[in-house]
Structure formats: structure tokens, C-alpha cells
Amino acid sequence: MSEVLVLYYSHTGSVRELAQLVARGIGQVHGVQARVRTVPKVAPVTRTAEPPVPEAGAPYATAEDLEACIGLAVGSPTRFGNMAAPMKHFWDGTGALWARGALIGKPAAVFTSTTSLHGGQEATLLSMMTPLLHHGMLVLGIPFSEPELATTASGGTPYGASHWAGPNNDRPVSEEERRLCMALGRRLAQAALKLAP
User: Fold this and answer.
1) What is d(CA 62, CA 102) in angstroms, rounded to the nearest whole number?
2) pLDDT tens per residue, range 69-110
3) Distances from the Cα of 110 to the Cαs of 44, 45, 52, 190, in angstroms?
4) Exposure winner among 28, 99, 102, 129, fewest CB in 10 A?
């Protein structure tokens, strides 16, 4: 069965929950399944490396995961309107894939979570698109035919799925945010099937 990679970094668990919802949407498309992977933390000072296998949650992503997938969803919390350093660090290490053109023509989508309502959701989504575009991927958003885009009072953008977690990470994923995550996963999986060689 063909796989769509759901690649995420989550600090407090909100992005992990969105990743699971995107994966659920992918799983609703016949002939496709989600492969969920994360990236290890990075630190501003030298320290012991993360273990090769996380203690809990999804396994760490590899270049082989990117090469094998027929589509890709990328998720990260926002850091000053940008993707978090662990996700950026992961993409900085994909030069060999870029040189081979391994991701050219594959569809991709992005998702994020912020602590404040105006914490840079759309800027973060756009920042995650940049390496995808450099890799020659085809970036998908959420069309306004999804009614939740017009009714959400929290997360959800045409650039990708998003969630407003609140300053104490105490806001649950809203029903609109949930439906938009799953819609993004379905749309990505459908496009990936159509574009797969």
C-alpha cells in the first residue's frame, strides 16, 4: 500500500495531536496509509545526542522515509512565526535528496499549532513551505470549499491546518480544527494517489 508521510515536531503535544488527525484523514482514502514520524530535539549547546529511537511516540524520520513516500505532511509549532529549530535542522540535512531530485513532483501540505491566536500561524505554515518548494514538491492548501474555514474562531487557514493551543496549552483541538486537519489529510492522500508514478 502507498504511504503518505506525516512528519512533525511537537514540544507540548498539540502538533502531535494534529499529526494524528492528518494521518486519520489520510487513512480515509482507499489505497493509502499514513506513516507518522517525528524529528529529534536540538539544543543551543552541545549535549548528548537524542537516543536513536524515541522513548515514546513516533519513530524519528529518515531520508528513506521521505524518498519512499508518495506525499508529505509537515507539522511544527511556531517559533516567532517560523518552524521550530528541530524541524528546520531536519530539512537542513536533506541536501542529498535535493541533489538527486528525490522529492520533485510529490504533493505536500503543512500544519501548525500556536500558543497565541495571533502567534504567527500563517507565517509558520509559509516557512515550512519554503524547503518543500526548493525540493520541487507541489504544495497543497485547504480550499474554501471546506466550510470550517469560514466558521472557525480559532485555527484553520487556507495555507494549511492549524490549532490555537492557548498560552497554557489548555485549549483542546476545536471541532473545526479537527475537521480541517482531516480534510487536509484526505486532500493530500487523494492528490498523492493521482500523482504517484
Assistant:
1) 13
2) 999 999 999 999 999 999 999 999 999 999 999 999 999 999
3) 26, 29, 25, 16
4) 99
Q: Which residue in this structure is represented by grid cell 528546520?
A: 88
How confident is the model at residue 3, as a pLDDT?
98
The Cα–Cα gap between 86 and 97 comes to: 18
Nearest of 110, 124, 122 to residue 188 by alpha carbon: 110
Whole-angstrom Cα Rg for the chain: 16
> How far apart (Å, rounded) are the C-alpha atoms in residues 108 and 149?
20
Cell numbers describing residue 164: 490555537
pTM: 0.95
CA distances from 47 to 10, 44, 87, 105, 164 (A): 20, 9, 18, 38, 32
- At position 155, the amino acid (one-letter code) is G
**DSSP run (H or E) holding 71:** strand 71-77
Report percent pLDDT > 90 for the chain.
87
Which residues are CB-contacts of 91 (< 8 A; sequence separation ≥ 6)? 131
Residue 135's pLDDT is: 98
